[in-house]
Amino acid sequence: MTFLTADLPGTGGHYKEHPDDFLVEEIPLYACSGSGEHLYLWIEKEGISTRELIRQLARGLNLKERELGYAGLKDARARTRQQISIPANRELQLDRLNLRQARILSTTRHGNKLRLGHLAGNNFTIRLRATCPDAHCRAESILNRLRTLGVPNRFGEQRYGILKNSHLLGQLLLQKKYDTFCTELIGDPNQITDPPWQQAAHAFRTGHLSQALASLPARMRDEQRLLESLISGKPSKAAVFDLPRALLRLFLSAYQSHLFDQLLEQRVPQLGRVENGDLAVKHVNGACFQVKNAQQEQLRADQFEISPSAPLYGYKVLLAEGNPGEREVDLLRRENLSLDDWKLGEGLSMQGERRPLRVPLDNFLIASGPESLQLGFSLPKGSYATSVLRELIKPAPD
After folding, report:
1. In the CATH hierarchy, which fold is given to the domain comprising 30-117?
2. Torsion angle, CA of 319/321/324/329, rounded to 10 degrees?
3. From CA 181, how far away is CA 172, in angstroms rounded?
4. Mean pLDDT lowest among 148-157, 179-188, 326-335
5. Contact 184, 163 (CB under 8 A)
6. What single DSSP character describes residue 86?
7. Which residues pair with 281 in a beta bridge?
8. Contacts of 283 by beta carbon, 8 Å cutoff, 6+ apart
9. pLDDT digits 0-9 by tens, 243-281
10. pTM attached to this predicted model
């Protein structure tokens, strides 16, 4: 991986040793009106994913998961605060609700259900431990550079799951390789450290499906559901499509992310330089336009009004022209893909969109502790703190 701040030494260190090391708090897109048919819950969770939180709420309030709304998925390995919307007619049931590893901080009403993407961004508070002696000075230099040049808009490690294979599962879905998908979902025993899960993966790969189901940890409901379908005699395709659509779309989205990251890597360290044929994003509203005269538009890029973009591939996404467009088409060829391959049907078709190659860094703060740093900063929605942390930590010199 190429660093945008390659000439600046890193702080070293690590994070997520404790839940308090990583706090994420949503920045709402709008204020709630105080009235309406939907109740917005401001929830703090720790050690569970947003999908698990949705499951708990749906089960406890006797709702279908699709009746709940959320703006974004939050990492399980962190303390996070986010909004979840529920039908307001369930408000009286909240007093009897027993959430695991989560608590409701406040509630307010609003007229519409919360939708994916309905957030302005996220505030991060992160502690780096075991940093080098002059980490504060190094961090300040790096963050000042990122504030000027922007943050590489890479996808974070949490995008690819605990086994780092979510994008492979998305690729297998596109390729219609359902047998291999099942094997990949259960997991590679050599990559798994949890003993019961490892035992289940071994059993699955040797054809002992019932043993695999019995060995799986109780928390792995999706994997259990897949095995139950296969044990009942369903072919692998039917078993895969028995899984929640939200989960399958998550895998497809991870594959989109993987391809985007490859295109981004080709343009580091000049993420702010526009080229003829680029589809540039206006940061003020997210609108795209094609760059006809790169020299003329570069001033706007230098002022961070616009940035070049790359596709999250889908059947309706607009591709760039010129050299940027050639790179986008070449990647599709190397993956043996066409845009129409993303038209899967079954509620899984992905339209695609453009994503800026860099995003602004706002509100950064640094405080020093004994061999540690406390960092605070904000990023727009859909951007990952790990993109900042990679630039900061780097392998520190001896």
Report:
1. Pseudouridine synthase (3.30.2350)
2. 50
3. 6
4. 148-157
5. no
6. E
7. 288, 307
8. 304, 305, 306, 307, 356, 359, 360
9. 999 899 999 999 999 999 999 999 999 999 999 999 999
10. 0.89
Amino acid occupying residue 148: T
CA quadruple 82, 87, 91, 96: dihedral, nearest 10: -80
Q: What tokens appear for 337 in the block? A: 């893909």
284 Cβ contact partners less than 8 Å away, ≥ 6 residues apart: 305
Q: Which residues contact 263 (CB under 8 A, 6 or more apart)?
A: 310, 311, 327, 328, 331
Note the Cα 333 to chain centre separation in Å: 25
Residue 75 is among the residues annotated as catalytic for this protein: yes
* DSSP string for residues in 176-223: T-HHHHHHHHH--GGG--SHHHHHHHHHHHTT-HHHHHHHS-TT-HHH
Helix axis angle, 178-186 relative to 221-231, nearest 10°? 140
269-358 under CATH 3.40.50.2300, yes or no: no
Q: Is the pLDDT of residue 76 over 90?
A: no
- Please report, for residues 70, 91, 100, 380, the alpha-carbon distance to residue 244 in angstroms, rounded to integers and kept in the order given: 16, 27, 22, 28
Q: Quote the CA–CA distance of 126 and 398 in Å, as a whole number.
A: 24
Task: Note the maximum CA span of the chain.
Answer: 65
Residue 349 CA to residue 265 CA, distance in Å, equals 27
Alpha-carbon gap, residue 398 to 390, rounded angstroms: 18
DSSP string, 263-327: HHHTTTT-TT---TT-EEEETTT--EEE-S-HHHHHHHHHTTSEEEEEEE--TTPPP--HHHHHH
Which entry of 7, 20, 75, 188 is annotated as an active-site residue? 75
Which class for 1: exposed (0-12), middle (13-18), buried (19 or more C-beta within 10 A)?
Answer: exposed
